[in-house]
Structure formats: C-alpha cells, structure tokens
Amino acid sequence: MEILSNKEFTISQGTKVVAQDLRNSVLKYACEILQRDVNKVTTEKDVDNEIYLTVDPQAPVDGDDFQIDLTSPDKVTVSSKTSLGVMYGALAISRDILKIDDFWYWMDTVAQVKKTIEWTNFDLHLPDYQTEYRGWFVNDELLLRGWNDHDSQQYIWQRVFETALRVGCNVIVPGTDVQSQVNRQPAKEFGLMIAQHHAEPLGAKMFAREYPDLEASFLKYPDLFRKLWRDAINEQKGTPTIYSLGFRGQGDKPFWEDDTSRKWDDKAIADVVNGVIKEQYDMIQELDPGAPMALNVYGELAGLYKKGLVDVPGDLIEIWADSGYGKMVSRRQGLDNPRSPLLDIPNPHNRKRGLYYHVAFHDLQASNFLGLLSNSPEFVSSELMKARSKGLDTLELVNTGNIKPHVLYLREVAKTWVKGYKARTNDEILDDYVKHYYSEHQKEIVSLYEDYWKSVVQYGTHSDETAGDELSPFLIRRIIKTWLSGKDKLSDAGWIVGDDSLADGVKKIDGMITPKLPNWEKLVVNLKKLMLDQNEQDAKTLYGDLYLSTLYQADGLKALHLVIQAYELSMAAKKDDDYLKPFLLADEAYHTMDEINFAQSHHKSTKWYDFYKNDGYDDMPLTAIKLRFLRHYLRTLGDTADEDDWERRFIKAPGDARVMTLWTIAREFSDDDLAKKLRERLIDKL
Predict the structure, then answer these.
(1) What's the start-to-end Cα distance of the chain, in Å?
(2) Which residues span the membrane (predicted)?
(3) Which of 4, 37, 274, 472 is 20 to 30 A removed from 639 (C-alpha atoms)?
(4) pLDDT, tens digit, for every residue of 360-397?
C-alpha cells in the first residue's frame, strides 16, 4: 500500500465513506456513523474523495488497534485486523478530526460546522488500555424502555451502542431480562462483545418465565434448567460472548428463596452452586470451547467465597461488586451490612479479577437512579485506582443506569481504563468536564457541582453511606402507609431507623435531613439565577445535567421534612382545628413533590421532556399522588363531613358565613383551593 508523503485530505460534502464489505454489519454501521458526521459538520463540496474502511489481516497494528493512511490524494484507508478495530478508527476520525463529542446524543452538544475540513494528522490509534474487557451494563433501564426517539426504540439502543464504543467499550450487557435478549444481536452487529447479568447466567431465559407453573427448583427440575442453559449457549456460540456462570433465584435474589424443597445451610447452598457452575463450565467447554467465562462473586456468593466454600474452575474471571454507592466494600442488603472489604480478599488460585461498578444504582432505599451519584467523582476515581492496584482490572462492567443522568461519571470511568491514569481530584475532573460542555460561567458552574456533594445527606455511620434521589420518595411513601395504617413501625426501613417506633424513626430521619435543607434550597436558587444568565445551549445542558439532580434532592428532602412535621403535629392534635396546620403542610409537600414532575415534563430541551415518564423506581408521580391523598385524609380528620366548616369559618365573609337562607350556594372548595385560601387568611396565625 502506497503512503503519500504530502499528507493533506479535504473532508467536504464530496467525501464518501465506503466499506470493503457492507455485509459486515460492524463496517456498515461504522460507515453510516462517519458519513452522518461528515455531512453534519461540512457545508460545501470540494473534490470527490473517499474514506475507505477495511478489515486487513496484514494491518500493521495489533488487537483492535487501527491504522489510518492517506493512500492517494483522494483516498484515506482505515484498516485493522478486526471489524471492531475499524469501528474504533471511524469513531476516532469522528471525535478527533470532525470534533463530534463522545456523548453528543445524551448531552445535545452542537457540532462546529465548517465549509470544509483540512485533515493533516493521520496518526490516530486506540488508547493503550490497562483494562482488557471494558463494558457498560445498561441496567435498571426503565427510562430508556419507556421512551422513543425518532419514533423508535431501535434508534435509542443504536445510540447506546455507539456511545459505548466511542468511550472505548468492547463489552456490553445490553439491558436486563427480556431486554438484554432482544438487544443481544443488535449489540453484536455494532461489534460489541456480550456479557450477562449476574441474575441471568449464560444469558439464559428465566425459569419462572418459561415455566410459570413450576417451582424454580434446580433439585426438582434439573433437566429443564439444563435445557435453558444449553439453548442459550447454542444461540450465542461462535459469537463474541463472556459467559456469566452462577446461580441466583428468579428476579435477582438468593435461589433458595424460591426453593422450599429442603432446609438450606451454607454447605448445602455451596454444594448446589459449585455443582451448577461446574455443569455450566463443562457445557461451554463442549459447545463453545475457548469462550471467556466469568463468575460474579455477588450477594450470597461473596459470603460463601469468604468462608472457603466456593470450589470452581481456576480459569474463570472473578467479578467483584462495589457497595452500589461506589465504595469497594460489600453491598448492604436490608439490615445486613457487613461492609466486607473487597481489596484485600486472598486470591489463592491467582484467577483474573474484575469489577461490577455502579455509577447508577437502584436499591429502592437511598441510591441514585434519576440523578447524580451521591459520592463525588473524586471518590469514584480514587476507589477505582485502589481496585487497579489490587489487580481488579481485567474486566470492568459499569452500571450505567439510563446513561443521560450519569455522563459525568461515565466519562471519567472511561478515562480510568487507560494505562497511566492517576486518581484525579474533584477540581481536576470538574474543570475538565465543565470546560468541555459549557462555554461560559465555567468557574461558577464548577462551584455549583461541588456544592451538590457538599449538600448530600449521610444516612449511615460511614462517610460513603450517602443518600441519592431514591431516599425521599422511598421514605415518604412508607411514612404515609405506616401512619395511615395505624402501624407503629416503618416497613423496609430498619437500615436507617433501626428498631425505632414510627415516632422515633421520623424524628431520627428529620434530624439527618433538616441541617441540609438550606444548602439544597440555596443551590436550587443559584442554579436558577445562573440559567437566566447563560446562553441557550449552556442553560439546556445545566438543566438536564445538574439542575434536575439538585431538584430531586432539594424538593424530595423538603417534602419529606414537611410530611414528618405534618405527622408530628397530627399526632399531637386535640381538636379538629389542630389538623389545619398538618393539612397545609401536606399541601405544601404535595406541591413541592409535584414541582419535580413539572420540571421533568418541561425540560428546556424538548427532546427530553418525556424521557422520565416511565420512572417506576423513584416514582415521583406516585409519591405526589400519595401526598395528595394524605392532604385529603388530614382535611377529613379536621373538617366536617360536608367539608364546608373550614371554608365558612376561615374563608367566607362573616356575614355570609352566618346567614344561611340556603344551606350553600356552591360546592365545597377543592383541597387545592382551600389550601390556597387558608394560607392567605391564616398566614399570621399558624
């Protein structure tokens, strides 16, 4: 292949991206993406020329690296030994030459448009990665599932795969349960290797879904389980796959919770798990020999491992998981919080090790689902480098959640995969990020991001046990349920209130959150002020990337505080009018929570206004409904059966309230109208 010494190539509307073989789906998508970006950033036609994408066994590079050469005045050739390498090469041109941002789709970055682009630097290569298998786990993807863009789910998932490749991923878990199976082939068509959810060993279908009338017991129905495993391997064999071995119950829980056929102790559990893993291992060796395999040392398996009860083949990659909040300790599950360190676990078999790491998490308790992680980027950077120092870097699966709320972290995590990365401070990470995504007010914006982590609530005794956006709606719904049911203890909340009664528990919670409320309120005000001064593009970015995350925390915690106040006053009520203040507090809590729903549906970018509608975890709409119900319950306790006494005594003119030739001349006020009028009339009295 001839290489020209005078290296200059003009990219214009006359540039066509072509591939050696469009039957190769990876090359086909690489062509489509690069051609789209060429057309996006140029406006005029210069000469007709081409960028040629080819898989070449003789390419002078190794692995998935790529070579870019100017082979004639009107032809650039991108070659690699692998299709994935060619894709990386096309994306490198998009990023480095056309200046298309890796997260363009999620951050709505505006490409700089030119008449033509003069390309002179062809020395582009894949970064030198420390992490061999670099993956995204698109998990808890409710927002993605409930949203369409370009009237299409397929388009969204193609952008997920594109973004993963842009940041250097070569592995993906493309969703959860049925979604992962639907997306498995499309992800492979982009060049990504498939990994599997720890609750879906071998990528097999769920037993309970295939056999809904049978007990999910391996001891009772071993052949049915084996058939599911064998079918899954046969479907994937010969394609890039990292098989996940293991055995959890249906729905990501301990298997013995579904199997009541016997009593289970650690030895009995380990015998089943070890036997199952050995069978799965042998099946893969038989049906797809040479395929990489991983063992998720997660949940109950971690406990068995530490007790020396796990006996599995030595050539598996062990995958260890963080706390869900980014700390390298075992995950808290309900009341069980051993915080077993992950970094000092002996490795007598010298197995390769990797990580399942969360920048988004759902535990329906205190984690971050809709918003930013409650621990800082500096914290994440430090923890990942500690893991690297202990050799947990062969494979890394990052839980991305729904991607858009977590770009700050996903971008930094991708940087950690490269050799030579050193742990960075918040200032370094945020300066880099803000300069990249904002054109003005950069110092102010960095300061506002930093204020976010200074404001988070610490719910546990350890500094990393911080509260994400799930805390407030979780607790509000449980307080209302417990209170209105006449029960004495919060359900599912022992992890935060211990064995306290409802009265003592809410007092404890309020003591945690109240000192932080002014910080959050101030941050919301400062963000609103800044967005008024920003240009339109920066304001859209800040709204989706920080303002909404802040609002989830600020309004959520405020609503929680108001509910607790309403509860405490209600419990002290001696007469009907004592429910006036709790009624108004519940009204304020309802409107505070509903501000979040309004803010989501009135996003500054019309692309994202309906992105949040399928949120079934934080479920702010349901939380607002519960608060509205609480408000009416308190009115029922304090007002008359006809709901007109508060109106007559506190709102109507005295003469109208006393003269009753007609019982009434209008229907009762709605709760909304009543609360507004009461607040107006009683503002100095309550």
Answers:
(1) 85
(2) none
(3) 472
(4) 999 979 999 999 999 999 999 999 999 999 999 999 99
Cα dist from 253 to 199, 256, 333, whole Å: 8, 9, 11
Q: Which amino acid, residue 31? A: C
Second CATH level (architecture) for the domain 133-424:
Alpha-Beta Barrel (3.20)
Model confidence pLDDT, tens digit, residues 443-477: 999 999 999 999 999 999 999 999 999 999 999 99
The domain spans of the chain are: 9-119, 133-424, 453-638, 643-686
Residue 249 pLDDT exceeds 70: no
> Distance (Å, rounded) from C-alpha 285 to C-alpha 287?
6
Cα-only R_g, the chain: 29
Measured distance CA(326)–CA(384) in Å, rounded: 9
Q: What is the pLDDT of residue 662?
A: 47
H or E element in which residue 656 lies: helix 654-658
Q: Which residue has the tokens 């992680």?
A: 373
Burial of 3 (0-12, 13-18, 19+ CB in 10 A): exposed
Tokens 């759902």, residue? Answer: 362
DSSP run (H or E) holding 645: helix 645-650
d(CA 337, CA 367): 15
How far, in Å, CA of 121 to CA of 448, rounded?
38
Order the strands of the 67-72 sheet from edge to edge.
15-19, 49-55, 75-80, 67-72
Task: Please tell me if the domain spanning 9-119 has the same topology as the one spanning 133-424.
Answer: no
Where does residue 10 fall: left (phi above 0), alpha (psi -120 to 50 degrees), or beta otherwise? beta
In angstroms, the CA 529 to CA 66 distance is 47
Decide if pLDDT at 660 tops 70.
no
Query: Can you give the pLDDT at residue 4?
Result: 63
> How many other C-beta atoms lie within 10 A of the C-beta of residue 329?
19
Residue pLDDT, tens place only, 483-518: 999 999 998 999 999 999 999 999 999 999 999 999
Coil, strand or helix at 341:
strand
In Å, what is the CA distance from 225 to each residue of 177, 200, 289, 312?
16, 12, 21, 19
Cut 0.85: pTM above it:
yes
pLDDT for the residue 276? 92
- Has residue 152 got a pLDDT over 50? yes
Q: Are 586 and 650 in contact (CB under 8 A)?
A: no
Residue 3 pLDDT level (bands cut at 50, 70, 90): low
Tens of pLDDT, residues 139-151:
999 999 999 999 9
Q: Which CATH architecture has domain 9-119?
A: 2-Layer Sandwich (3.30)
User: Which contiguous run of DSSP H or E holds residue 77?
Assistant: strand 75-80
Q: Comparing 84 with 655, which gets the higher pLDDT? A: 84
CB contact set of 658 (below 8 Å; sequence gap of 6+)? none
Please name which of 69, 61, 180 lies closest in space to residue 127, comparing C-alpha atoms. 61
Burial label, 662 (beta-carbon count in 10 A; 0-12, 13-18, 19+): exposed
Q: How far apart are CA 50 and CA 31, in angstroms?
A: 11
By three-state DSSP, how is residue 122 classified? coil
- CA dist 587 → 507, 558, 559, 583, 629 (Å): 21, 12, 10, 6, 10
Token reading at 465 = 């046990």
